[in-house]
Amino acid sequence: MENFSSKLLQSAVEEFARLPGIGKKTALRLVLHLLKQDGEIMNRFSEALLKLHREVVYCRECYNISDSPVCEICSSPRRDNTMICVTEDIRDVIAIENTGQYHGLYHVLGGIISPIDGIGPADLNIEALEKRLQSNQEVREVILALSTTMEGDTTNFYLYKKIKPFNRKVTVIARGIAIGDELEYADEVTLGRSIIHRTEYDQKTIR
């Protein structure tokens, strides 16, 4: 148990330590760094967090994080609306966008099927994807860009069965991403090549 000279310092450290991947020592370094900043910087920092909490929304089309009801990607006339890339979360959208190799639309599931974590199909944005395919006949291909883990493969298979009745081409990113890896940690060149060299998903691809 750390001995803090200030209850305010202790409280701030404990709140930072709640963040993923942040231990008590890292939290203390961050708090002490913020204490050295002037009032204007601290005001901007706190205001940015408050605005994020109050104003950020999820795109009603793809469930990406957005500043407006429809995100910039879905509303852009420059995007290829014949393709939808299905990702686990916003971090994967950012990773794919950084490659500069994909110019279609997205659909963020909000997770992957993981019974051990109590996450089933009903907990994800799968029904919304089905509705998009039903209402938008322009979509010709659905790209499954999920992590190459057992949970990711399970989700891919479930999605394939759900999409198959819509008679759309279903592809998966090439296995340039090592088995067991998550997309957000892949380098941009590898991820970009995996998207370019994606392969069609069918019964033969089921392991």
Briefly note the structural class of the backbone. Answer: alpha/beta
Cross-sheet strand order for the largest sheet: 4-3-5-6-7
* End-to-end separation: 48 Å
How many helices in DSSP terms?
8
Major beta sheet, specifics? Answer: 5 strands, mixed
Shape: elongated
Low-confidence stretches: none
Q: How many structural domains are formed by the residues? A: 2
| E-strand count | 7
Please report which band the strand proportion falls in: under 5%, 5-15%, 15-25%, 25-35%, 35-45% or over 45%: 5-15%
CATH topology-level name of the largest domain: Dna Topoisomerase Vi A Subunit, Chain: A, domain 2
The percent of residues in helical segments reads 40-55%
**Briefly, what CATH class of the largest domain?**
Alpha Beta
Rounded to an integer in angstroms, the radius of gyration calculated over CA atoms is 20 Å
Q: Mean pLDDT across all residues, rounded? A: 89
Q: Any guess at the CATH architecture of the largest domain? A: 3-Layer(aba) Sandwich
The ordered H/E elements are HHHEEHEHEHEHEHE
